[in-house]
Structure formats: structure tokens, C-alpha cells
Amino acid sequence: MPRFSSLAEWLFWLETLHPRKIDLGLERVARVAANMQLLTPGYGVITVAGTNGKGSSVAMLESILSSAGYRTACYRSPHLLRYNERIRIAGEDVDDAALCAAFVSVESARDGTSLTYFEFGTLAALNLFSQSVLDIAILEVGMGGRLDAVNIVDADAALVTSIDLDHSAWLGTDREAIGHEKAGIFRAGRPAVCSDPEPPDSVYRQAQTVTADWYAPGCGFDWTATERGWSWRSAGKVFHDLPLPALPGKHQLQNAAGVLMVLTALADRFPLRRTAIEQGLATVALTGRCQILPGTIETILDVAHNPGAAKQLALFLRDREVRGRTRMVLGMLADKDVAGFTAVLSPVVDEWYLATLPGERGLSGMDLQQLISTRDGIGTTQLFQEVASAYEKARADANDGDRVVVCGSFLTVAKALACHV
């Protein structure tokens, strides 16, 4: 068995362990989880799937439950600056030593079973959770849902956020097919919540097929914006004038509404006072979601990387007035809908700083330019070999009243964030 002295060495080795970076399916990972006795956790579990809004919903669930005094754990992906961000216990990222010990446990138990990077990390997270005293864990699906590694655990409640076209090579080429994959996290007799205001029929059909308890906007819960915040209602509960979520963007109300439905459905086991909901919404934080960095030149970081997320970012930028020009630093992966993504953002962008992303999936700045330059009104473009150079040039070019926006990928935002560390 390999013995590494640092987390970096473990992570490098994990990249080489399986022949494919993405290999959806539960048989291999469930077999190792059974060896480790991880399939029947002694704490509550909420699983969150969806195309957009997963990270925000996980953060709100954690914030509200923690505010209520519950001891929480979170597993989410991808990370921005440190792998440790993926696994949180009691509101804190786990440290390197704990992660390395968990990796040793997984390696000891896999008995030659080949695991992907994500599968190995998922088992490490569940191992760490099993060794902690927890009330509830929130698991974010990496891709899809039905065949994603986190789905080896039966969730006490499942949440599917907004559904859009992404990862089509693995999940399908339309919302119905993708919705079916996302809804694979539903379980019989347990709450199945969808916060998408217009969910594909396949999501509801899957809830019916497994006889889950179905909740969706207009079918079990609803919400409205008010002068002093927003109000939320279900068949048995009403909250008037709640504070807006601290995460920027009007679309966060949609995510928050789904979160409240999940928590209401679990209220017999995890009761909540209104004060905990208010505190959790008011203090929730999540890096890289319409995140505004302070400074003389406003900088906005957003991990949006598909057309649905681009629509929300465009609305946010329109609502946030700017006196000068909007300078967009963009880096994307090759399996993304670059044309669709940039078409949505073009009306709110004046200058494009197109950066090459590293790795076999990364697009070059020149590739980006070719994919977006065929349409009128795209604005001027500059090409860069790396995100840091594009970001620094955009900031250097910016005048008083301009803003710099960074988006297109978690990798792009991470590279920009690293410039501030």
C-alpha cells in the first residue's frame, strides 16, 4: 500500500489510480463502502443534485442547520483553492492530517478495486463523517445523481435544484434526460424536493416511480418577494418577511425556497426555530458565487459555466449598475457550450479577456475566440496564455467606474482568487 507524507502526494496519486477521470456507476464504490461499513450512517443525510444552485443550496442548508445548533458535515465539489474545502465538519474544513488518514483507510479497504479521484474522495469524506459525532450531513452530487458516488447513501431527503444542459456527453442532450439522472437520488417514502420552477416531467415521474414524497414550486410550496425580504409558504407552514439570503443574486430566492422545503419536510427529526432560519440566511457565505471583491475597481467572481448560470449572472450584472465598461475574464472547458454561454452574456460585456485553461479539457484563448467571434456585438477580445495574466491585464485596463467579471469555470475563478492570496 502506498504511504505518502503529504496531501499533495496523495492527490497526485489519486489522479492516476483509474483509467478514466469520469466513470459513472455505483458498483465499485458501493463495494468498497460496504467493506468500510459506510452505507448505513448513524446521522441524517440530505443529498443535493442539480445543474446550477447545488453549492448555494448546500451552503444555506449548512448555515441554517448550524444556526439551529445541529452538528453538521458537508461534502461538496469541486474545490477552489484547497482540496480541504470539499469536506467540512462542524463548519470547518478538515485538515491535511485527517484527510491523509482517511485516504489510508480507503486504500486499505478497496482491495484492488479501481476508483476514480471523485469516488476515492467521496469514500474518504464518508469515512471521516463516520468517525465524527454528527447530527446531519449534506452531500453534494458531483455529476448527475443516479450513478454518482454519493448516491450509495440513502438520503433522508433529496433536493434537485435547477436543471439545464451540462455534461451532456454523460447525462443526455435535453432537460428530460438530464432531469431523470438528477432525480435518481430520490428514495421511497422520503421527501423529494425540486426547486426548479419548471422542472422536466422526468423529475416528477421518477418521484412517482419510487413513491417519494414530491414537493415542487406550486406543488407543496411557494414563495414571493416582499418589500422587506421574502415570504415562503407550504401546506403546514408560513414564514413572512424572511431576510434575503446573504448570497448575491435574485436567483438565490429559488434556491432558498427549496432549502426551506427540505428543512420543513425534516422538521419532525430536525426542528427549527424561525430565528435559526433568519440567522442562517443572513450569514450564509460561499466563495465564487456572484462574489464581489472590495477595491477601487469592482471585481465580481462567478463560477457560472453553462447557459442557465449565464442567464443568472447576466441578470445580476444588469441589476448592478456600472458607470463604465464591463471587462470579462473568461476561461472555459472544452465540454461546455461556449457559444450558448457567451451569447447570453454578450449584451452586458464590453471587453473580453480570453484565457487558456490548463489540462486536457481546457480550451485555449484562441479556441474561445473562434467560438464566440462569429456573432455581431461580441465586443473586443484579447488572448492570454493563463488566467492570471488575463485578470491582471483586465484590472490594469480598468478605469474608475469599470468592473472586472471573472467566470466560465471553477478553474478560472480559482486562478483569479489565487492572485489575492
Verbal overview:
This protein has helices at 7-14, 27-35, 54-67, 96-110, 117-130, 168-171, 175-182, 201-209, 252-265, 274-283, 307-319, 338-345, 365-372, 387-397, 410-418; strands spanning 44-49, 72-75, 87-89, 92-93, 136-140, 157-160, 191-194, 213-217, 220-226, 229-234, 238-242, 291-293, 298-301, 326-330, 351-355, 380-384, 403-407. With 421 residues, the chain is an alpha/beta fold. The protein has 2 domains: 7-283, UDP-N-acetylmuramoyl-L-alanine:D-glutamate ligase; 291-418, Mur ligase, C-terminal domain (Protein-Tyrosine Phosphatase, Chain A, Alpha-Beta Complex). It has an 11-stranded mixed beta sheet with strand order 4-3-2-5-1-6-7-8-9-10-11, with helices on both faces. Strands 12-13-17-14-15-16 form a 6-stranded mixed beta sheet. Helix 11 (307-319) packs parallel to helix 12. The relative contact order is 0.12. The model has no long low-confidence stretch (mean pLDDT 93).
Quick overview of this protein structure:
It is built from 15 helices and 17 strands.
Present the secondary structure layout.
Elements: H1 7-14, H2 27-35, E1 44-49, H3 54-67, E2 72-75, E3 87-89, E4 92-93, H4 96-110, H5 117-130, E5 136-140, E6 157-160, H6 168-171, H7 175-182, E7 191-194, H8 201-209, E8 213-217, E9 220-226, E10 229-234, E11 238-242, H9 252-265, H10 274-283, E12 291-293, E13 298-301, H11 307-319, E14 326-330, H12 338-345, E15 351-355, H13 365-372, E16 380-384, H14 387-397, E17 403-407, H15 410-418
Parallel strand pairs: 1-5, 1-6, 2-5, 6-7, 7-8, 8-9, 13-17, 14-15, 14-17, 15-16
Antiparallel strand pairs: 2-3, 3-4, 9-10, 10-11, 12-13
Helix pairs in contact: 3-9, 3-10, 4-5, 7-8, 11-12
